[in-house]
Amino acid sequence: MRSSERLSMTDVKVFNNEAVSVLTALFRLNNHERMIDRDAIAADSLARWVVKSRVAIPVELFEMIEVFFSWDSFLGLRTLPYVCFEGIDSCEAFMEWLEDLSPQSLMAKFFSPQYCEDGEARDHAFRRLELDEREALKYVFSNLELSNSGRYSAIEILRDQSRAKESFTGLLHFVCRKLFDDELREILRQSSRTFRELFDGNFSLYGLPFLRELLDIETTKESDEPDFYIFSSWFLGGSVITASLPERNSVISIVGEEMIKKRNVLLAVPNALEIARTLSMDGSMKLLRVLMNRRMNIESIIEETGLHRHGLIEKLAALSRQRLVVTGVSGDEFWFETGEQLIDKALLTMRDIMVEKRVVGHPLK
Q1: Taking the model in full, what pTM does it have?
Q2: Phi and psi, residue 322, nearest 5°
């Protein structure tokens, strides 16, 4: 999978993991309205699943989704490093792991920004927070990882840690047993196959620059690049969640299927409708004028156009897929360029459709 000398010391692993799917499903259930703008083609199917699932979840469990999977605090998702490093790859394995944890050990994982080992001293410290409300308040309000709304959730679960563990386990169990039916599992399998195909194709050609833009991360110039653990998720749609663990020299990311589709720069089969759609995107014509007979990296394009990086990457990827720009890598950076020949070929493809020219596979043949 490595494609450059810079990656010779870096391990990049891609997973389809049922336990991660359960965590992201719960995050989606609580935050769907915030995420839907980035969901693109998957928006309708994700919305249908969310509506059906919200109705099915018992009220007492549904109320706890906000506590563990709020937009700001990410408490439940902080179990992700343990899923990654302790070989938890299924609902059953996740349940067994949770069963072996004391409530205090689970609290430590919720509230620590770092990977933490189980220990009696840590358990004792969290047991004290359950018994002493003043200490709990002091701990919560001094924790810079928590937002203001997250602090209230934190106080709630620290007051009764056994109940918090029971509620968290109950949520996971309900999703695994009741919401992950055969139809959904097939959707997840197909999503994983699509993700893997796109990731392998892009990464083999473009290496670290593609990884950086996919995960929205800054990479260092150091020789000891971190190891990357990448999980695909249908539930994240057009979003990505990334956690850096310096103590493990690792980066863990969950990437939505729609995200990799939008940042995919592999060439597509020429399609007049897609070319027209790409040219109609806000800023596309300006980008083509800027890149005409000029080879530019992303930073230079941002400086000249004033476009936001996130939106720019997706516009450049769309132009690349439709062969309106040429894409390559120099060192650790993408470059993009266009020319009159590329524009002429794209317009000719559109002309052939408009005049109903008989070509192989033509929809109007």
Answers
A1: 0.89
A2: -90, 15
Tokens of 2: 């490595």
- Report d(CA 362, CA 120) in Å as an integer: 69
DSSP 42: G
Instruction: For residue 8, count other CB atoms closer than 10 A to its CB.
Output: 9
| Cα angle 72-74-79, degrees, rounded to a multiple of 5 | 170
CA distance 31 to 359: 46
- Mind giving me the DSSP string for 96-134? HHHHHS-HHHHHHHHH-SS-----HHHHHHHHHHHH-HH
Tokens 């360029």 sit on residue: 337
The predicted pLDDT at position 51 comes to 97
What region does 207 belong to: left with phi over 0, alpha with psi -120 to 50, or beta? left
Which structure tokens are listed for 34? 């915030």
* Whole-angstrom distance, CA of residue 343 vs CA of residue 190: 34
Tell me the two tokens of residue 262.
Answer: 């939008």
CA distance linking residue 97 with residue 19, whole number of Å: 11
* Cβ atoms of residues 202 and 264 within 8 Å: yes
Report pLDDT digits (tens) over 270-329. 888 899 999 999 999 999 999 999 999 999 999 999 989 889 999 999 999 999 999 999
Rg of the chain in Å (alpha carbons): 23
Q: How far apart are CA 88 and CA 18, in angstroms?
A: 9
> Dihedral angle at the C-alpha atoms of 116, 122, 128, 129, nearest 10 degrees?
-10
**Percentage of the chain surpassing pLDDT 90?**
77
Alpha carbon distance 303, 80 (integer Å): 37
